């Protein structure tokens, strides 16, 4: 989070160097919903042009409700709250959920590789447990024909790849 704040400070300095004029307010919720409630009650919050954050999922939901009711765009840079984005046009999710990533990939796959085989190579680590699991679940839900195998350095690819074209997706970082 500190790096994110430092990046914002750098952008503000660059804006000043270009003679841009704006007012920026920084608030720290201390990951406390009561502190967020106090911040959202500040008079200047009613006239904000943009809200960045917060980072806690519960606080994102609270701030999103506030932003929607006042028609203030809000960027959520870190938190992926799956059920929030489709119902609120004022929220910009900079970190899509694993389900959203899976939906986007499958939309691409169906459009560009509709007659090809899908092979998902899983490694069981953190990214795979999130995105890989969401992708497999969405394939099942959409009834997309796919195969999955465990990642192994000595995989005999000829056993998994036939004569037909195959899209191989490795769900690891």
Q: Would you give an account of this structure?
A:
By secondary structure, this protein is α/β, with parallel strands linked by helices. It is built from 5 helices and 6 strands. The strands form 2 sheets. Strands 1-2-3 form a 3-stranded parallel β-sheet, covered by helices on one side. Strands 5-4-6 form a 3-stranded parallel β-sheet. β1, α3 and β2 form a beta-alpha-beta unit. α2 (33-40) packs parallel to α3. The chain is elongated, with a radius of gyration of 21 Å.
Work out the radius of gyration. 21 Å
What is the structural class?
alpha/beta
The coarse overall form would be elongated
**Tally of extended strands?**
6
With helices defined by DSSP (H or I, 4 residues minimum), what is the helix count? 5
Helix content: 25-40%
Strand order of the largest sheet: 1-2-3
Percent of sequence in beta strands? 5-15%
User: Low-confidence spans: pLDDT under 50, at least 5 residues?
Assistant: none
Helix and strand run: HHEHEEHEHEE
Q: How far apart are the termini?
A: 21 Å
Biggest sheet record: 3 strands, parallel
